[in-house]
Amino acid sequence: MRTHITLDDLDDLAVGAAILGTGGGGDPYMGKLMTRAAIEAHGPVRLIPLDELPDAFNIVACGAMGAPTILIEKLPSGEEMGRALDLYERYTGRTLDALIPFEAGGINSTIPLMAAAKRGLPVVDADGMGRAFPQLEMETFNVYGVPAAPVAIADERGNTGILEVKSAAKSEWIARGLTIRMGGQSFIANYGMDGATCRRVSVPGTVSLALGIGRTMREAKAQHRDGLESLIEFFAGTHYEEAKVVGSGKVVDVSRRVQNGWSVGIVTIEPFRRGEEPIRIQIQNENLVAEQAGEILAIVPDLISLLDVDTGEAITTERLRYGQRVNILAVRVPPIMRTPEALDVFGPKAFGLDHAYRPLGLLPQR
Amino acid sequence: MRIGIDVGGTNTDAALMDGITVKGACKTPTTADVSSGIIAVLKEVLRMTGVAASEIQAVMIGTTHFTNAVVERKRLLEVAAIRLGLPATRALPPMTDWPNDLATTLGRHTFMVHGGHEFDGREIAPLDEKEILRIAGEIKARGIRTASVTSVFSPVTPVMEQRAAEILLNEVPGLAISLSHEIGRVGFLERENASIMNACLADLSAKVVSSFRSALKELAIEAPFFISQNDGTLMTPDYVERYPVLTFASGPTNSMRGAAMLAGRKEAMVVDIGGTTSDVGMLMQGFPRESAVAVDIGGVRTNFRMPDVLAVGLGGGSLVRDDGARIGPDSVGYEITSKALVFGGDTLTTTDIIVAAGLEDIGDRARVAHVPAKTIATALDTIHRMVDEAVDRMKTSAEPLPVILVGGGSILVSRQLPSASEVIRPENASVANAIGAAIAQVGGEVDRIFSLEGTSRDVVLDGAKAEAADRATKAGADPSTVKIVDIEEVPLAYLPGSATRIRVKAVGDLVMA
């Protein structure tokens, strides 16, 4: 059982977080560098398994909000997250005992680790998305009744704010507006809860999961084994259980536009196997649904990740280009993310899709 | 008439071209001082073609010199790496994630200053000019001769980088300064890395350019000369002196463009078959399609656009196993002349198969007489299948494309390929690099974030296109030949006002005197 996150874990974590990003969540590279600096200065971060979390622990979820394209240019000061957490503690009048990532995919897998290293706090081995999602209300914390407010928000210039909002959806709406005024990038602490609640409402083991994905890919490469096959075996031993390659081919078209601030589009992939119909993947920051000849191969909240055929690296939606050769990996989300109330918040309907959710592995065999 | 020269690690090649006709081409070994190798190859190409030095209108040089210097950590200057962006960016200081030896070679003189802009051009903080003055003092005190300046969102507005340079130059006359907005695109760390690497090459670039200059002078070639950059376009010597980093990876680009010219195609797949691997890359409008992933140079992450090349383990020395069903990825490599069956060795290679099949006459044919006909047939099928699959993987549409074969191993392919509309084997393919340099064009590029609010996409795009074309013309392109070769739009998620990152690239033919 892993008890600490050390410097040696960060490469694996970034690889795993990119795959859990399902095309979104931002490039974990930057977060990896920041976390490395924090761990070098302050030492490893203790990781607490969800089922060992003391009932009375005071926990808050945290991470970054904004456009990945901003983050790759305007690097953080590194103090933003700490400032939001300070404000949160001051406002609630209580000291924090542990942090939990609000998002397991992309750069937000690393931000809580960086902040925890600096504060000497442990991180809970769990999160509220089990992957990456585009909006703050798309959290199992919200699904299972934890209020989003108060929300503490901070930028690199020392501007901070506390939001008291009526609903998780409102917190997203208002925080997003502030984020834009903060230059397109902010750091947020919200969904405060106690340990007992955290155990009930979180997607367990997702920090370890990201590490395990990275380790599996690394070891497969070192042993010249097929990384995807190893990955599928690895998922089979987790509560995600079902993973499979639903297609392989070449990106032949990427059409993108912005709609209400979201980057939406359709990627068309022509299968390597001749005579197969093209596969279309609908995107809203993350990959939402993969279809072929009118049949759904995988659909949100299940994970859809595009991996470079040669390197196995996950390709984010903003980096998708004509001509890339990809494997389409789909992974079924764990049971806590498949309940009717969870699907109301981040199922196909929440993204305006007409299709019903059909969990991967329960699809008709092709 | 023009001459293209490729200064490689092993050979210096030259090709003399009249328009698109190759009048003559030759190779000599690269020399340590570079210039004597260039002189030798120039003399030879002029001699063999009987062309007078006065008839040469332009000389184009492609070189791996600067890349090699960074990879070998040699001939590099210490750099003052100045960043404008505080209070943002503090989490990752300059040269974070650099290999330790390279960072140490460059002296780790890093400075972070208040300044920088937001994506929409507002200031993060005003430029701290006092701090720049203090850094100028440090630069003098430490005897540093070159500096890089990188400001947040300088591709959107370069004013702070320019102002900082002005102050520095005023305080430290003669300081070589690399400004990031002239080197890279959005993507801060990568652009900063490239700017620092550029700065450390300031001395070497002046030396290399002057050795090129003196070589031409010695042969009384008065024509202007240019150096090719990684996107297959040309830079003037003055520009290379200031921006040597832009020559990184010009080699594969020149090779592919040379192949395109030799074959007379602009839309094609180039397959360069060597002894161990085949490199497959796609030409679009005569330029290599670029890779979308980050590229490490000398262990440093950059976002240069490199040709997207797929390497597969098939070459003239590849091992043949399983009665021809399995080929490579291992190869006898340069030992082919002792290890292949036809050369008296004991290893069955692809070259042996070609000889056994009667397709080429290399070495001693009697030594492959025992290879079973079935093995030969299977191996030929495998070879063609491997090339065909590689071509197919690199294609961007299902339409068959012409395939241009270059390299010594191109004898392996004797049949049509299902993925190809035709297979072309041009002459002079061994000096494709030098030819690629000779035919290089002049380019101009725009890459920044535009707001579409209160305007239309067409207006913004037209503006960006005009700006790219104008940059190409200013760089020496004939305005009547300038055209837009690439447009890329990436809308920025989570931002209002339809902020869109737009990149436009224009190229044109060099104005010839």
Automatic annotation (TrEMBL), chain A:
Residues 169-360 form the S-Me-THD-like C-terminal domain. Residues 8-164 form the S-Me-THD N-terminal domain. It comes from the Bacteria. InterPro entries: S-Me-THD-like_C (IPR048350), S-Me-THD_C_sf (IPR024071), S-Me-THD_N (IPR010318), S-Me-THD_N_sf (IPR027479). This is DUF917 domain-containing protein.
UniProtKB/TrEMBL annotation, chain B:
Pfam families: Hydant_A_N, Hydantoinase_A. Residues 191-358 form the Hydantoinase A/oxoprolinase domain. Residues 2-171 form the Hydantoinase/oxoprolinase N-terminal domain. This is Hydantoinase/oxoprolinase. It comes from the Bacteria. GO terms for molecular function: hydrolase activity. The lineage of its organism: Bacteria, Pseudomonadati, Pseudomonadota, Alphaproteobacteria, Hyphomicrobiales.
